[in-house]
Design brief:
The chain is an alpha+beta fold. The protein has one domain: VC0467-like (3-Layer(aba) Sandwich), CATH 3.40.1740. 14% of the residues lie in helices and 33% in strands. Belongs to the UPF0301 (AlgH) family.
């Protein structure tokens, strides 16, 4: 798969990834080129209130209004992901990445950004791959690459996202949605 074709796609962890932040994870690829890839894990809310880290943003976050672990890289940094509806230009403090998905400058005043976005999620850290690393992981069966849908990023039920994304795929990929966490107990 060409690297440019994974930007905007979802990486869905295969059962081969059994532990850590990537086990049963769904990652939105924000950027992928010859220099590597970056993405955000969409289904790992952590027990951290947004206002404890970024005062003023929690009231505007999509439910569940918690910080999400975006990946294992730079856990001490925060990224804001938002939807900019339609084809309108991104407002100040917002940078459109692809389609309606945009990054939010969390140093901006929430009151300036929030009226122009339709959904906001805060992530601690991100997922990152060096040049060629993601391609190797896809080739060796760590990730399924599938299309994203608008509701994936801001799902109200992140715990069920892995299974929901797989269930909407065609056969035989959709069958993986029912793969047991511990196949030895089957």
């Amino acid at each position: 798969m060409s690297t440019s074709h994974t930007t905007g796609k979802l990486l869905v962890a295969t059962p081969q990834i059994e532990e850590g932040v990537f086990a049963r994870s769904v990652v939105l690829v924000l950027h992928h080129d010859d220099d590597g890839a970056q993405g955000l894990v969409l289904n790992r809310p952590i027990d951290a209130d947004i206002d404890a880290v970024l005062p003023g943003w929690e009231a505007h976050a999509s439910s569940p209004a918690k910080v999400f672990q975006g990946g294992p890289v730079q856990l001490d940094s925060a990224l804001g992901l938002a939807v900019v509806p339609g084809d309108s230009p991104a407002p100040s403090g917002v940078r459109r990445l692809f389609g309606s998905v945009a990054l939010v400058d969390l140093d901006a005043q929430p009151s300036l950004v929030v009226p122009a976005v339709a959904g906001l999620r805060i992530f601690a850290g991100y997922a990152g791959w060096s040049p060629g690393q993601l391609e190797d992981e896809i080739r060796t069966g760590s990730w399924f690459v599938v299309d994203s849908e608008s509701g994936d990023v801001f799902t109200h039920e992140p715990a069920g996202l892995w299974q929901r994304v797989l269930r909407r795929q065609g056969d035989p990929l959709r069958w993986v949605a029912w793969y047991p966490r511990d196949p030895s107990l089957n």
